[in-house]
């Protein structure tokens, strides 16, 4: 694993100016999966969404959603 | 942290807490002056034998005791609103930490870079070292770099908890299925303590929060050498 030299995280998003950031996490997760479905896993612009949802969503939520994605039961429109 | 017979705030460790303390002192000053003035007037009114022939009508005094309180209220309301909006201002943070409440411990996730995740349990009284505090020390502290904007996302996996650190002026309920955002900037190194602030079950009193603020270099060192 490469050394972390500088901190960076999901920036402020004007769509989610509130204390409640639940949708920020969820939209980032959905956007990432839409992005890779359309452009493929290696498309560099999708990285932004991946980093955002990794930073914002609790690991347990990501795990649950990933399981749902695999089983085809994820409720969001990908 | 709080100490015995402490009446006022803990020492602040963030610019916003500084502002909150100043506002508190300002409001208390106004309150003291008003109480003193009104108390003095009441006492003198009771302890003299004057008879006021203008008792039923006095326009001048009515104007005075309407206008002065109006100004006093403005002098309290404006700084209060200013502070309210300052507290709501989310600068672009450099670090996101997720803090999950569990029955009965906190767990922290740092997943901006590597996937760091750990639980933070209270140290039981019988395991305490001589220099540790009872019921407030934890085995794994939440580490943050000082002078850096940090975003905390508070959530829960079971019941409602509440994550708080008074020295940093932050408190938010940890609600299952919801992410509550807090941001703060710690302006000095040190340990800052807090306790779960929403009754969450039998061990509600035994899930403290400890924030350890260190320099950026030590922080990077800590992340890079985690486990």
TrEMBL record, chain A:
InterPro entries: COX6B-like, CX6/COA6-like_sf, Cyt_c_oxidase_su6B
Pfam families attached to this UniProt entry: COX6B
Keyword Ribonucleoprotein among UniProt keywords: no
The UniProt record lists the keyword Ligase: no
CDD domains linked to this entry: Cyt_c_Oxidase_VIb
SUPFAM superfamilies, per the entry: Cytochrome c oxidase subunit h (SSF47694)
A single Gene Ontology CC term: mitochondrion
Similarity comment: Belongs to the cytochrome c oxidase subunit 6B.
Name of protein: Cytochrome c oxidase subunit
From TrEMBL, chain B:
GO cellular component: mitochondrial inner membrane
Cellular location(s): Mitochondrion inner membrane
PROSITE patterns: COX2, COX2_CUA, COX2_TM
Annotated cofactor note: Binds a copper A center.
The keyword ATP-binding appears for this protein: no
Regions that span the bilayer: 20-43, 63-87
Domain Cytochrome oxidase subunit II copper A binding: 92-225
Cofactor dependency: Cu cation
A Pfam family of this chain: COX2
Mode of membrane association: Multi-pass membrane protein
Biological-process GO terms, alphabetical: ATP synthesis coupled electron transport
GO terms of molecular function: copper ion binding; cytochrome-c oxidase activity; oxidoreductase activity
Known function: Component of the cytochrome c oxidase, the last enzyme in the mitochondrial electron transport chain which drives oxidative phosphorylation. The respiratory chain contains 3 multisubunit complexes succinate dehydrogenase (complex II, CII), ubiquinol-cytochrome c oxidoreductase (cytochrome b-c1 complex, complex III, CIII) and cytochrome c oxidase (complex IV, CIV), that cooperate to transfer electrons derived from NADH and succinate to molecular oxygen, creating an electrochemical gradient over the inner membrane that drives transmembrane transport and the ATP synthase.
Name this polypeptide is given: Cytochrome c oxidase subunit 2
């Amino acid at each position: 694993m490469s050394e972390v030299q500088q901190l960076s995280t999901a920036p402020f998003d004007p769509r989610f100016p509130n204390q409640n950031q639940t949708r920020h996490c969820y939209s980032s997760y959905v956007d990432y999966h839409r992005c890779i479905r359309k452009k493929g896993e290696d498309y560099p612009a999708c990285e932004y969404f991946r980093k955002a949802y990794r930073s914002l969503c609790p690991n347990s939520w990501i795990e649950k959603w990933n399981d749902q994605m695999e089983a085809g039961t994820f409720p969001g429109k990908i | 942290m709080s100490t015995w017979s402490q009446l006022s705030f803990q020492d602040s460790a963030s610019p916003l807490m500084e502002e909150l303390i100043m506002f508190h002192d300002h409001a208390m000053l106004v309150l003291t002056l008003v109480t003193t003035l009104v108390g003095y007037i009441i006492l003198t009114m009771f302890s003299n034998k004057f008879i006021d022939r203008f008792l039923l009508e006095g326009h001048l005094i009515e104007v005075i005791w309407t206008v002065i309180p109006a100004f006093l209220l403005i002098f309290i309301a404006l700084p209060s609103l200013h502070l309210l909006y300052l507290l709501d201002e989310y600068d672009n943070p450099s670090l996101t930490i997720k803090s999950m409440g569990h029955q009965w411990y906190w767990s922290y996730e740092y997943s901006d870079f590597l996937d760091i995740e750990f639980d933070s349990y209270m140290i039981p009284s019988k395991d305490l070292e001589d220099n540790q505090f009872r019921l407030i020390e934890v085995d794994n502290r939440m580490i943050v770099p000082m002078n850096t904007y940090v975003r905390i996302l508070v959530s829960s996996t079971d019941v409602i908890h509440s994550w708080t650190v008074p020295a940093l002026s932050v408190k938010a309920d940890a609600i299952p299925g919801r992410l509550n955002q807090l941001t703060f900037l710690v302006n000095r190194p040190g340990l800052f303590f807090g306790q779960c602030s929403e009754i969450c079950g039998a061990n509600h009193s035994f899930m403290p929060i400890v924030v350890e603020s260190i320099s950026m270099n030590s922080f990077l060192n800590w992340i890079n050498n985690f486990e």
